[in-house]
Write a structure and sequence with these properties.
The protein is about 35% helix and about 25% strand. The chain is of the alpha/beta class. The structure holds S-adenosyl-L-homocysteine, iron/sulfur cluster and FE3-S4 cluster.
């Protein structure tokens, strides 16, 4: 990227300014933070590790559960002290709240935390330079939470700061599913798919920059759809076709996608999982619960049985696939029997990894005002039992890899000297003693053991598979 002198947003400042971004929540926020950093770089902002002496602090927030949202306010308390110290020394610090808390709470944030100078929602990041300039000129609050997601896609397509060999690429944003527990349809707006041409251009750019893996992101990534590229007269594409198209890009060796919804898991995508060698054998397919009564109250649009059948079809196409999921325990009305059905579903599916949460009441969602809210201690007990089962399944999936030879994308150096860490096709962290010169390569490694969250491995005749 060509670096420019700081623009008139900061007249008289030739020194780089310090930018501290803290990212909460999902991978889409990680992606958005990279783009914000990329957008601010030409304005003279360089990323720093701490908020202490930052000129600009951006908290890219998450509203999904109460704990996530509250964490932002406790962090703002700490940042206030840094800001006061800096101002006491004649300096200046601007504090911005971005992301889903910004979208959901808007101006309430500045009431609760007056140190906040700017509040802006996920669809306004392309206007960031302009907002910064305005905040520099005038003190006072800046509030930007309008939805215009296509504009954001267009404006931000190629600007980002990337580290490593694997990158996220947002292909779809927003959600129209309205699960009754979830804030995402309110914070990210309606489902919008990016065009094939825009996605292809971004993935090509990543390939040119030496990246080996892309993870296609969307709140409902498998709801992605789009017109085929110009010159291709076929019907509208789904995610399966898009993946096959991106797989043709030289340099990109691995493609992943997340998060999928059971309702949008179509035949084309299942076929691609079986047939496209660059598409990794890992599928995050949240089910949330195993009781049809609860799934209905959650407005999920699928049953426990339809989900289990879907997993069977997917395994027919790709027998070794690692299945991952999300679970909520203690949704309003969940009885002991309903919870047992979740446990039975987990036993039937056998997950390689999973995320599980206690139901958190979110203001404005239908679930928050439902009768029969479940008591906290009951939620805690259920979560403990579920997590124990999921952990056992994860360990047995990991142990089953011992003795196998897996291609591992070596992504970074490990904690110990001479150690590299990478990812298996099943998204497991793998570490092995290997020279730094192999970083960014995909190497066949023999899995020798398991630790609580990773696999250990050794070189397998130093064969390079890609
Ligand atoms: N779009 C994805 C994930 C959205 S949020 C999907 O449809 O599955 C990620 C996870 O957070 C959800 O899958 C759900 O398990 C959890 N979650 C969302 N809202 C929640 C709430 N109110 N309380 C507890 N967990 C919640
Ligand atoms: Fe939330 Fe449901 Fe949409 Fe996922 S599908 S983002 S859980 S509303
Ligand atoms: Fe959180 Fe918003 Fe992502 S609520 S999970 S940051 S879409």
């Amino acid at each position: 990227m060509v670096s420019r002198k700081p623009t008139d947003a900061h007249p008289g400042h030739d020194q780089p300014k310090k930018l501290f971004i803290k990212t909460y929540g999902c991978q889409m926020n990680v992606y958005d933070s990279e783009r914000m950093a990329g957008l601010l770089k030409p304005l003279g902002y360089q990323e720093t590790e701490t908020s202490e002496d930052a000129d600009l602090v951006i908290l890219n927030t998450c509203h999904i559960r109460e704990k996530a949202a509250e964490k932002v306010y406790s962090d703002l308390g700490r940042i206030r002290k840094h800001k006061e110290t800096k101002e006491g020394q004649g300096g200046e610090m601007k504090v911005a709240v971005a992301g889903c808390v910004a979208q959901a709470e808007g101006a309430e944030i500045t009431t609760r935390a007056p140190i906040v100078d700017m509040v802006f929602g996920p669809q306004t990041y392309h206007r960031l330079p302009e907002m910064i300039a305005r905040a520099a000129r005038a003190r006072g609050e800046i509030l930007e939470t309008d939805f215009a997601v296509e504009e954001k896609f267009d404006a931000l397509a190629t600007i980002r700061e990337i580290k490593g060999y694997s990158a996220f690429v947002t292909i779809q944003e927003g959600c129209d599913k309205f699960c009754t527990f979830c804030v995402v349809p309110y914070t990210r707006g309606e489902e919008v798919s990016r065009s094939v041409d825009a996605i292809t251009a971004e993935v090509r750019m990543l390939a040119v920059r030496g990246l080996r893996e892309v993870t296609l992101l969307g709140q409902n990534v498998n709801a992605w759809h789009g017109a085929p590229p110009k010159g291709d007269s076929g019907e509208e594409w789904g995610l399966g076709e898009l993946v096959r198209h991106l797989a043709k890009i030289d340099g990109i060796e691995r493609i992943r996608f997340t998060t999928s919804h059971p309702r949008d898991m179509d035949k084309g995508l299942i076929a691609a999982l079986g047939e496209e060698p660059k598409l990794m054998p890992y599928l995050h397919l949240p089910v949330q619960a195993g009781s049809d009564k609860i799934l209905k109250a959650m407005n999920r649009g699928h049953t426990a049985e339809s989900y289990v059948r879907q997993i069977e079809d997917i395994r027919k196409a790709r027998p070794d696939i690692a299945i991952s999921g999300d679970f909520i325990v203690g949704f309003p009305g969940e009885s002991d029997e309903d919870f047992e059905e979740t446990m039975q579903l987990v036993e039937a599916v056998e997950y390689a990894s999973a995320f599980s949460f206690k139901y958190s009441r979110r203001p404005g969602t239908p679930g928050a005002s439902m009768a029969k809210q479940v008591a906290e201690p009951v939620k805690a007990q259920r979560l403990e039992r579920l997590q124990e089962l999921l952990e056992r399944q994860k360990q047995s999936f990991n142990k089953a890899q011992i003795g196998k030879v897996l291609p591992v994308l070596l992504e970074k150096t490990g904690r110990n000297d001479g150690q590299l860490v990478g990812r298996s096709p099943y998204l497991q962290a793998v570490h092995a003693n290997l020279p730094d010169t192999l970083l960014g390569q995909i190497i066949d490694l023999e899995i020798t053991g398991t630790l609580s969250n990773s696999l250990s491995a050794k070189p397998h005749e130093n064969r390079i598979s890609a």
